[in-house]
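Record pair follows.
FIRST:
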Amino acid sequence: MSESLRAFASGLARTRQTFVGRIINALGAGGITSATWEDMEAQLVEADMGIAPARQVVGNLRSYILRTGVTSAVTLHAQLAAELRSLLADPPAFALDGDPTVVLLVGVNGAGKTTTTAKLAQLARARYGARPLLAACDTFRAAAVEQLQTWGARLDLPVVSGAAGADPGAVLFDAVASARARGSNLVLADTAGRLHSKFNLMEELKKVQRVAGKASAGAPQHVLLVLDAVSGQNALAQAAAFQAAVGATAVVITKLDSSARGGIVFAVQKALNLPVQFVGSGERLEDLETFNPGDYVAQLLASESQR
């Protein structure tokens, strides 16, 4: 197993321990009853999969048993994996097709946008041959600018920032111009955290998006909504508001290692039809990984010997 997949598997430990183990035990115990299905649905909902996806998985698995008569633990485990995998879309390609490519990272306070910006720069440079530039578009929180500058120094990457309280759109415009001058082909814009219910702040975010398009045709090519796994179902209301405001292209789920609610991956895709593109499961720069639905389900259902 690769180091990145090992870290990813470790990050899912809490989710696996809280509900998956109990589900697998129930399927392998024999004598499956209505209580078994009720308990399974409850465990899936508890992991923040959401009621509709949980009922779909349980209903399909129950129908499979009634239709085939199969009750072997091995077969049911495989069928459960297939049902879970069917709920997840493959992430879109992370293409560098702009002049430069512009990525907006958006979301509420505390979701981990600034750290994710740095991690994504590391990932994009290592995996896609990107030459990133970081744009400190969170101009209202001085600590956010300092944090991004620290990451930039650590990664040896340029950081464009403005004065405290500066127009974040102007910072992004300058960042795109700077990227062209420096030969950078990727601008990662860390935007200010904002409550999804605050109209004025959401309007400001729309303005930043419009400025990106003026600075570079077709920008932003990616709008990544950063959601904290710990927030669980609360993340869905956030996601819906940001999706309506700026049309997020994909989701980044952070803090999977700190939560037993890894089922939020399913809930986001079911409720919003919005794919998960990256997942974060640790504090290290390397702890951001391109989301692989097959690996996610496999590790979610892995036995001790498979980890």
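SECOND:
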Amino acid sequence: MASDGQSSERLREYLRTLKPAARSMLVQELERGLLRGGENAGNEIVLQELRRAIRADAQPVPRIGDAARLFFAPLEPFLIDARADHKRVGRIARLSLEPIWSWIGRDLMQAEAKALSEDINRALLADDQTKAEQLVRALHERAILRLKDVISGIGPDERARRRLAVQVGTPRALEDLSTIVALLSLRDVLGDFARRLPNHIRVFDRDEINAVTKQIEAAVAQPSLDSGGPRKSDVFLYALILVMNRLGAPWQLIRIATRAAESDDTARVAETPYAAAVTLVLSEAESMVVELRSELRAGRPVVSMLKAIHDAARGLRSEMDLSVESPWSRQLAAIRAEVSSLLKAEIEATPGFVRRLLRPRPAKDIAPGSLLDAIDVNEAEMRVEFVGACRQYASELAVNEVTTRAHSELTLYLETGTKVLLDSLRQSGDADRPFRQSQVDAAIRFCRTVFGSEYGGLLAKAAEVAVQTGTGERRPARA
């Protein structure tokens, strides 16, 4: 604790030495980072100390970050860390907030936004949180009116829609602004609903569903809805997103829809307001496929993502009767087909990748003291784990045949190839032994993944024996 106090004091001393312009710039950059979704605890500490120094010196600093963060606070549960051109129902990309805020202050309501933001910043500098919240509420009300005018002026005009996207600086400007209007209009209803929800719902069973349904119905019963104000359908949508955020398994949201319809028949479910739950789960599954494509291209692990997609697909098919033709069944079929297409090439390439690393090489082709590339070994191990995950989830991911074939090739090659590698290690000389040892070590890692830790441990012991045997056989000859 003493060291923490000393660190804080040193930080204060340093910040006091900064010129006002430097403090101003540092505050703005840190707050922009927080607005983009950065949650570094160190940044928060520095901001706190900067604010204390600013108050102590009565230094006027333009505080764009705090005003923006308070303005967008009702949107927080609906923000996603995705590209700005995402297509997730009821969501806004965090990256879109900064250009939208700039557009509001530049084009939508320049004078009002500037005046209210300055008042908000002064209230924050004075630690008057109540005053700041009142000012933010006033800014919300004015922004809602102006945004509604902009949205109604666009109408079906595609050219106007594109022009708005250029002005705002986000590809989904009209959709984002419409979402902001709905969320700001419902901020009190949704805020109260969110406070009544459990922080975490591990299993969405009958009792939890009934409790959540009652709370949603109470929120929808607000007299201001559909009387020139927000729509009841928006309450259903955003309340369901809040519930989904709290679920241990997001796909379980489907259960509230089948419970409301008292049936797993898609037609009956579609007739209820809770049909939005199915739309949300399918939208989340589609977004996971987009992320899967990106992660595969980047060569990053995707096992947890495969499980999430598998669970969502299985949940949809087990909780609802999607055997009949319907928009939802077609949407799920398209998702599974796209996942299958993404995975097949990666699955088929894995046995060949492993063979290239572990293939026996003549001693003349091995540079003295060389080793397998560690990056290649890590990638191969990740690929072997990937094939194992695909095999586990093959049915819902529609990759049964290709996964079975790839897994058979891998097991056959590892069972037979490791014997050859051990013989090569036993007969190796001083120059090629490091490389052959690195091949055996890689094979042990792959075998642990495919056959389990016990098999890998036995192979490791066999490798030790092979090295000792080979060294012992050569000593008398050298003597």
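COMMENT: Confidence is low (pLDDT under 50) at residues 58-64.
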